[in-house]
């Protein structure tokens, strides 16, 4: 029994380590607001569950320092983009058209493992490492993302091929369009500093547009009070500026996967001819005997390996 409990505890620790560490700023402010609300005479008239709090963060300034990157690595991934069979079951050599238009997507992922959350949306600037920027000049170094939120962005890359293949008699040619992809991944840390005053309104859920009370507070003082009773908030640092501010080190992982080149791989197999295949045929253009696979991949009419990227964001 003791070993079983130990295993369960270890599994719980591993699971917690894999979970992102998120501090909800709204939750901290709401706890402070309820503590302040208890001091008012309006408390006896309403139940807590009947009240609605709206927090305005517009007077709180968030600034960020430069991003530090570490543990940069790269990996290669071969990928079959298209496979086509060219079957020649005649006694003569034949010429086949081999035309392909396909697209892949280069993917930029920014994942936060230590971050802050607040309901009022705002943007932050994420500076990409030089190792990613050097591969695509059209990729902006400064990426605008939602404050502290995981982000995925995709960039379309077309791959086109227009060629001809000669297939001997009684032969199958298997043509593969392969794409070599590389993925660069890195860890990052980013210092966020914030200070200013929050403005909160308290209303009833039945009449959310009628304000019962305004509450204004300094966010630095609110965080400092919360740190005394919540050890989880020790990740905050008090920065003694004029005025003082709160510092938090955001951490995460950044990766960028992209196609670097295309390869045409041809394989040959022998075919058995039937008695009806002995008739003579002159050389002419013939379409593949079997349709191309992977029809779900997106076609495009762009030129061969057009490096211009068409940004399609997924936030």
TrEMBL record:
Cited PANTHER family: LIN-24 (TWENTY-FOUR) LIKE
Record-given protein name: Uncharacterized protein
